[in-house]
Specification:
With 398 residues, the protein is mainly alpha-helical. It contains 15 helices and four strands.
Length: 398
Amino acid sequence: MTPGLAFFYGGMVHRKNVISTMIKSVVASGVVTVFWVTVGFSLCFGHSLNGFIGNPSTYLFMKGVNSGAPWSLAPTIPLGLFAMFQLMFAIITPGLVVGAVAERIKFTSYILFIVLFSILVYAPIAHWTWHPDGFLFKMGALDFAGGTVVHISAGCAALAGALVLKRRKSHIEQIEIPPANIPYVLIGTGLLWFGWFGFNGGSALGANSLAVSAITTTNTAAASAGLSWMFFDVLRGKKPSVLGFCIGAVVGLVAITPSAGFVAVPQSIFIGFITAIISNLAVYYKSKSSLDDTLDVFPCHGIGGMVGMLLTGVFANKSVNSLGVDGLLYGNSSFFVTQLKALLIVVTFSFTMSIGIFKIISIMLPLRVSSEEEELGLDATQHNEKYLQGTLILSEKA
């Protein structure tokens, strides 16, 4: 999924920023992996400290992870496998934020953001939601594969980053930037779509019928949302486009993530269909504002995750997953209220903490590239590399 995200984002930015955008997604694999094996897994899944965070010493440097004892909620797989599976979620989350701050954030500052975000935002929310002693888990909130933990947290962090970094020169001057490589976007969508089967299906924590159900709802929601976005554009006078279908499909994948293992296939069609329209409209109204979220991370991942969480509260059905609950459609209004509360808590926490993180980084390091560097492009000025007609070459500086 990480190279998929890199291709997806890299194909949509200006050609002078392709490499810089892609590396910011991929480098999370390095930074978060080191963080995860040292203290990250402990903070998320270690012994709970008052339902807020895990004890950092529980699995420090993976201590005891390969002892043979399984995770309490995944009794059929080794703890080490569970730890590596959860690492995937931890890596992809800060990588999503890249799309909102692309084309203007310094690489070193973004590295520091990954570290601080993982410690101060991702770890607490993952613990609240997925640890059996986490307070959102105890409250009864359901997030099958990361609607709050991944997409809402990243979407709100993306909004914070866009606000702190302010607008690009091209955005102020309303210069339309053509995507560098639409086939890259298509390749990235395919990799993400396939990888999402592991994301959502794997969250069943076993090769079982629930995993099959989650994969089926995931594929269905993506298909429905891709078509919904594309033909909604047509209804608004546009032509059907590759970008439209690809963005819509990813929005559908985002929307089904919290409910993949709690809803049936017919409901997944509606979830993909309606979320794509809502995110499409959010992108449109964002484009009319002064907010410079480069690749629409908040309208797609933030809003998409929020709609998905709320629709989990509507369509969840115990007949799909005995460990779940019935939602609003089946007479359980209290569960919908629980989902709404969890959503508001995560939105508030992620946004305020992320604003603070970006402000702190701006004090410690230059957060944004200079106007000259922005004009030349981050590929050359940050990495001494250029993307030209599908070829990576060394820059003249190098």
